[in-house]
Each structure stands twice: as structure tokens, then as C-alpha cells.
Amino acid sequence: MRRRAVLFLSAGSLLAGCSVGPNFQPDRMKLPPGFTETAEEHPATPEEIAHTDKEMTEWWSSFNDPVLTKLVEAAIKGNYDLQIAGQRILSERAMRDKAASAWYPQVDANAGGGDVRYSLNIDNWPLRPGNPANRPEASMLTYGMSATWEIDVFGRIRRSVEAQEHAVEASVEGRRALLMTLLSELANDYMLLRVTQLQIQIATNNIRVAQDSLDLTNRLYAEGLGNTLQIAQAQAELDAQIAAREPLKTRVSQVAHAISVLVGEMPGTLEEELKIVKPLPVVPAFPATMPSIVIANRPDIRMAERNYAVATAQIGVAVSDLYPHFVIPLNFNPNASAMYQLFQANAMSWQFLMMASLPLIHGGKYTSAVRAAQAEAEAARLNYRQTVLTGFREVEDAMAAWHDDIEYQEQLHKAAEDSSLASERARKLYAAGLIGFLDVLTTERTTLNAQNAEALSRLERLRDAVNLYTAIGAGWRGVPLTSSALPVSLETQNIWARALKQ
């Protein structure tokens, strides 16, 4: 028996080096050296490159807003979606270990006893010691051990483990992608909050102006220079300005609620703190250098490549089913009718074999699985390429918006200043009786629209920066995986889990 066991194990080790199916090869796309929308006019200096790398790591700090930085840190620690993604990584790692366990012998122990009865209606029923044919009942005691060991000759287990390892990597990139989305949403909400507060200030100023206009109209009417129509128009304008401010207050509350949830708090927890009006964050400078290779930082592209690796390994798993499977089963099950007989030599029963199975006729079941795995791998490769193209488009779009919105905001700022000046002059002319009140209303509404448009353009400038940093895959580096687990220790639940590696 020893000789046979050595033979089986030696044969297994010699054959275990073969893995069927293709090995993963990254799909290298030809990338342009840079982006077409970049503003680089000269090669970046080492200092500029180092500054850009720092911005990529913690891009939110480039807005010079301590409140935003504090919120980002709170979201990284407290966001529940991010913690869920972390648990999925831990789950994938455990599944990888589960797949790897197939490399080792699977051993189980058993013991039992009870009464059995054999049928007398079967011809030539084999008589058992101590159990004559006229006594079909018997007591049985048994104990033993069963084991099985699959020799991974054609790499089915290796390919399964390889696929699971790539799945772990994909889940890591998935968490990074979620982190980027979280930070982008948080920053955009925060910018919207501050710009809405600016719009409330604009609305409050316009209410004051409308109140001044109403007071002026009443005074002119008292002096015999106005009429009740003008008073009604001024009162209606004041009421409209007061009403326009209320939805802005609602938006501030709603955005504050959204930010609270993003950082893992109940809605309203941060409302009082966020309602304190702060200046708008500073728009950071455009990155000093932007080579196209920066696209490799995007977690969605990295995840798509890992998914392609998973699908490639699954081809090997499917192909291995076309080849023989080699298993070494071991069974040791002594049995007897009495306890004193259970450990005698005559009670011994064991089995040690080398089993091989080869699929013969299955109606195309296994070849179809191979074709399906190949198609899935090709789809994953094409999805990787599409993800790269989408990433480039998003970066180019973000760059174009960044550059175009600079001039757009400048023009709106000039329009707001000119409108304010026209509104002030119109009120003076009306007070002098040189123009009608309708002209005053027209200039005031133009001023309000221009100021709101300028505020929204400032919001777009801030969002352009956030979108560019997100598009180039910045913000996930340097953020470690936070591990958490339920307060249940496996070792305290099962003595065998503490004594043996199961």
C-alpha cells in the first residue's frame, strides 16, 4: 500500500504543473501622448509634476476650504456605502481562500451506531458474522475517517484560484471607484450649498432694493408725483423677491441633509453647522502637467482590466473540465456489533484508491461552456477598451469645460456689474421724474438675473475642477481599506475551528 501511495503522489506532483487555458495578457491600447484640450505650452518642470502629484492625492485640499476638507475626512471614515464596499473586498478574499482550500486533502471524521435489519426476501443474502439468517436484526457500531484529495493535473483549481484573486483585485478597484464617486458627489453638493447661500445673499440684497423702491414710490406718491399703479407694481416686485428667496432656503436644507448622509450621519446633524455662511471655495489652478498615462489612475479602467483577467481565468476552468480528473479517495470505517469487537482486526474496513474520470458523451455540455467562457472573456476585453475610450472622453470634456467656462464667467461678472450700475441709475432717474417705474423694474430684474447667472457660473467653475479631478482618477490613493467585522469570533463558536484550520 505504501508503494502505491508513493506512486500516486509522485504521479500527481509531476502532472500538477500543467494549466490548460490561456494565460492572461493585458490588452495594451495605443494611447496618444497627451490630451488635445490640455493647456500645456511647455514641458512641465519636476516641481510642477510633484505639485500635480500631490493634487492628485488630495485634490480637495486645493480648494483651500477647511470645512470641505473636514467633510471629506468624515466621509472617508463614516460613509456606509464605502464600508459596504470594504466588506465585499473581505468577502472576495475569503472566497479566494475557499477556492484555494481545494488544493489540500479534505478530511472528515465520523462515528455512529444503532440497530439495522436486513431483508430476508433477497436470495443469497450474505450472512454476517454473529447474524444468522433467521435473525435479520443486528446492532452496528462504526467509526472512521474519510478523505479525498484532488490532484490538480490540468489546473482547474489553479485557474479557479487565479480567477478569484483577480476578483479580489476588481473589488478593490470597485471600492476605489466608489470612493471617487463619493468624494465627487460630496464636493459638488458642498459647492452647490455655498453658491445657494450666495444666491440667498443676492436675493436678500434685491429684497432690500425692492423695499427701497417701494418706499421711494410711496414718498413720490405722497408728494403728488406718483400714482397707485406704481405703488402696486413696487409692492408686487417686493413680494416676488421675498417669494423667490424661500426655495433657496429649502435647497440649502436639502443639500445639508444630503451631505450629512454622505458622511454617515442622520439628516440634519450638520444642518446648523453648514448653514453658517462661508465664502466660496477658491478655484484651483489647472494641473501643470497632464500626460495621457494619467488615465491609468482611473479605478473603473483598472477594474475593467481585472474583470477581463477574471474572465480569462474562467476559460481555463471550463477547458479543464474536458480533461481527466484525478482524485485520491481514502475511507477508513471499522464496524462491529459490539463495542469490544470495534477495534479488533476483523472489524477493520478501509479503501485507498486512485480514481480518474474522463468525460465522454455529454451532448456538447463542456464544449459549450468553453465557448461561453471565451465569449465572456472577449466581451470583458471589449468592455475594457470601451471604458478607456469613455475615460478619455470624460477627461477631454472636463478640460474643455474648464477652459471655456473661464471666459464665460468673466463675461457674466462684467454683465452683473453693468446691470447693477444701470439699476442704480434708473432709480435716480425715476426719483427725478425722468423715467417711469416700469424702467426701474426692468433694470432691477435684469440685475437679479445677471447676478444669479454669475453665481451659477462660479458654481460651474468649481464643478469643472471637481469633474476634472474625478475624470483623471484622482483622490483614491493614500486612502486605506478600513476593515470591520461583526462582534463574533469564529474561534469561540467552534472548538474545532480553534484546534484545526478548517
From TrEMBL:
Keyword Calcium on entry: no
Keywords in alphabetical order: Lipoprotein, Membrane, Palmitate, Signal, Transmembrane, Transmembrane beta strand
Keyword Nucleotide-binding applies: no
Main location: membrane
InterPro entries: MdtP/NodT-like, OMP_efflux
Signal peptide boundaries: 1-16
Subcellular location as annotated: Cell membrane
Record's bilayer topology term: Lipid-anchor
Annotated SUPFAM superfamilies: Outer membrane efflux proteins (OEP) (SSF56954)
Coiled-coil annotated spans: none
Protein family: Belongs to the outer membrane factor (OMF) (TC 1.B.17) family.
Protein name in the entry: Efflux transporter outer membrane subunit
Species of origin: Acetobacter fallax
Lineage, uppermost ranks: Bacteria, Pseudomonadati, Pseudomonadota, Alphaproteobacteria, Acetobacterales
